[in-house]
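seq as requested:
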Amino acid sequence: CPVENVSWDDTQIFIQKLNEMEGTDKYRLPTEAEWEYAARAGSITAYANGDNTVTGCEYDENLDKIGWYCGNSVETPRRVGQKASNAWGLFDMHGNLWEMCQDWYGEYPTGTVTDPTGPATGTHKVKRGGAWLREAWYARSAYRSGDPPDSKTNIKGFRLVRDP
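struct tokens:
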């Protein structure tokens, strides 16, 4: 099952301890741009496997194949890997739990950018991906939101990046 009820602050402590245990600094949270790139897996649609057909909790045939949301979760987080992966083999990028990112939440930069990072400071950390308790609309690859770094909920978790 995914880890839930942890804050962004908690993840930083976990990452620090994991890196210390392995004598490295290769583990971290993804940037918001990295998260979206991984979720899309080369697609340009709302979900990695197609567009959304509903915005609420009604049945969405595309999201139902790859993610958990209020329309199919029976109001509980689910064990990872029960739905199909995206084209890059990543599971549960859409729905199940919001996933925290490294970036502070802020406005997108204007103009074309490559692999941007968020603002240097802020009050909220980015979360992406939607959650088992939320509507289909929130599970779209492009949807973004944020929470204070000390916030803990049963609909938010994390996914680590391992640098080479």
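The first helix runs from residue 8 to 22.
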